[in-house]
Amino acid sequence: MNIYDVSKKAGVSIATVSRVLNGNSNVSDKTRSKVLSAIKELDYTPNIFARGLGLNTMKTIGIMCTDSSDTYLANAVYYAEQTLRSFGYDALLCCTGNDYDNKRKYLSLLLSKRVDGIILVGSQFVSSDPAIDNTYIIEAASEMPIILVNGYLDGENIYCVMCDDRSAVYSSTAKLIESGVKKPVYFYTSTSTSGMNKLQGFRDALSDAGMTPDKKQLHLCTKNISKAKDYLTALYNEAFYFDAVLASDDSLAVGAVKFAYEHSVKVPDELQIIGYNNSVLANCTEPELSSIDSKVEQLSTTAVSLLMQVLSGNSVPKLNTVTADLIKRKTTKF
């Protein structure tokens, strides 16, 4: 059963059937009724690609993330998809992993699917490393709008929604120092724009307090609870003093809580700990984890709203910033 059968049954042209399917107002009520009756009688399901040809839109948005099992990314995708649905759009999700070639391949795949726009969720799609080529995103943006959620890339038809990560980490680090912390350790997970902004916030807070971090106070590692715990254990075993841990992801902060428990270090009296993203993990530790709320829901819904404005022909800012909040629980004493 196809659109030709509907056309024949209703006694109208294929173009008229297409206009009815696409909600075009330039169809009389009588004709619209004939077409809808034919559709119902034939039990015809419109092909979304055929409908898209008529409106030059597929009413579909491509979403890319590197890892759908990651709590932060999974939440971001969920909120983006829900918001798209409220605007009448479907979503095609691609989980790329961190391999550069896979990211390029999946972006090309979404372009070939004739989606109306693409949302890149998470900071891992754009690197601040000059050795990594981001031009594949810029080239894709010449065909359709690209929205980056917590990533930044300067380019035509590219729009960015970012958490003010630097200020969030700076403020939290400053509060730790004000509470008496002398030697905090900072865990970070990437060299993306977001990752570097967080690291800069930590460095700036120490610098403004007249502190210079030892290289052991700055540790780049994957989002892995055990690796964070093991690193702190190694510092502890070599008698390297530290009295706070601030992590760029809650999972690493959980590793710090586990370290403290295993070595009978009192939290927060002897060790203060702050995570990032205010995920469900923050409520799963004992004591419960203080964490920076990076406003994942606001980031995602704002990204979709911006995309809808772009698709409507409106002018929107290239960079849009969301302010984070520190949610204080039981692992901090300030």
Question: Care to describe what's here?
Answer:
The chain has 334 residues and is an alpha/beta fold. The protein folds into three domains: 3-55, 434 Repressor (Amino-terminal Domain) (Orthogonal Bundle); 60-162 and 296-322, Rossmann fold; 165-293, Response regulator (Rossmann fold), CATH 3.40.50. It contains twelve helices and twelve strands. It has helices at 3-10, 14-21, 29-42, 48-55, 71-86, 100-112, 135-140, 165-178, 193-208, 225-237, 250-262, 296-311; strands spanning 60-65, 90-95, 117-121, 146-149, 158-163, 184-188, 218-220, 244-247, 272-276, 290-293, 319-322, 325-327. The chain has a six-stranded parallel beta sheet, with helices on both faces. A six-stranded mixed beta sheet has the order 7-6-8-9-10-12, with helices on both faces. Helix 7 links the parallel strand 3 (117-121) and strand 4 (146-149).
Estimated radius of gyration: 25 Å
Q: Considering the protein shown, what is the CATH homologous superfamily of the largest domain?
A: Response regulator
What is the overall number of helices?
12
CATH topology of the largest domain: Rossmann fold
Q: What is the distance, rounded to the nearest whole angstrom, between the alpha carbons of the first and last residues?
A: 68 Å
Sum up the overall morphology in one term: elongated
Total domains, how many?
3
CATH architecture of the largest domain: 3-Layer(aba) Sandwich
Element-by-element helix/strand order: HHHHEHEHEHEEHEHEHEHEEHEE
Report the CATH C-level class of the largest domain. Alpha Beta
Main sheet record: 6 strands, parallel
Question: Spans of 5+ residues with little confidence (pLDDT < 50)?
Answer: none
Number of strands: 12
Largest sheet strand order: 2-1-3-4-5-11
What fraction of residues sit in β-strands? 15-25%
Protein structure class: alpha/beta
Whole-number mean pLDDT:
91
What portion of residues is helical?
Answer: 40-55%
